[in-house]
Amino acid sequence: MASTRDLELLIPVSSISENGCSKSSSTSSSPGVISNQHHSGHEAFSKVIRSWASKKFMTGCVILLPIAITFYVTWGFITFVDGFFSPIYNHLGINIFGFGFITSITFIFLVGIFMSSWLGASVLTLGEWFIKKMPLVSYIYAASKQISAAISPDQSSNAFKEVAIIRHPRVGEYALGFITSSVILQRNRDEEELFCVYIPTNHLYLGDIFLISPNDILRPNLSVREGIEIVISGGMSIPQILTTVDAQAKLPTRKPSFATSQVK
Predict the structure, then answer these.
(1) 94-117 as b/e: b if 16+ CB within 10 A
(2) pTM: predicted TM-score of the whole model, two decimal places
């Protein structure tokens, strides 16, 4: 009997001791868990702050970068143009920034008016004749004239005539180019008109020339200036929807509204 009573007395004591141990162990381990949770929460909060700060910084760079480039290029252009006549004003004792730039713009405008006349065209022809006689200067002038003729409002014979889209280099792929001229290809008794299409590859004035049939050329609703902007911007300024001239001709004409028919 004593042994049985002793066992009954030992069981709760052992359980109490075990519970006490478990309580003590849990009590001893709780500060570590709390510290780990606090540390992980601090790391998550710091990651959120860093991600938010980096996104806002990149947003500021995206907004300010084109503004800074535009300001830098514009300021450099103004300073460059102002430098043509500013030494004359400095020699006269007039040190006001901007006078040289205004004088240069006025001079360019007057040159445009003068060269549009018969006398100006004659002077230009005579000057080009002298320049073409110079060995090195003639090549520089010819290349510069082709560049300026591409964006000339007069659309001279050396300028880009029209924007074109051709299937190149593989089936299913298209390339943007410019129609520069046309040529007649004679084969025995047959003649075929081909368009000379210039395809820029690396830069606006570095590319390939293709002689393509008119049936293989797609003419989009883009002006030459818009095509040049697309090439210079690397395709970022291309519109989301391109419509060819043939598609525009096939589009149904809009019926006049009731108010328009009443007015007529």
Answers:
(1) eeeeebbbebbeeeeeeeeeeeee
(2) 0.45
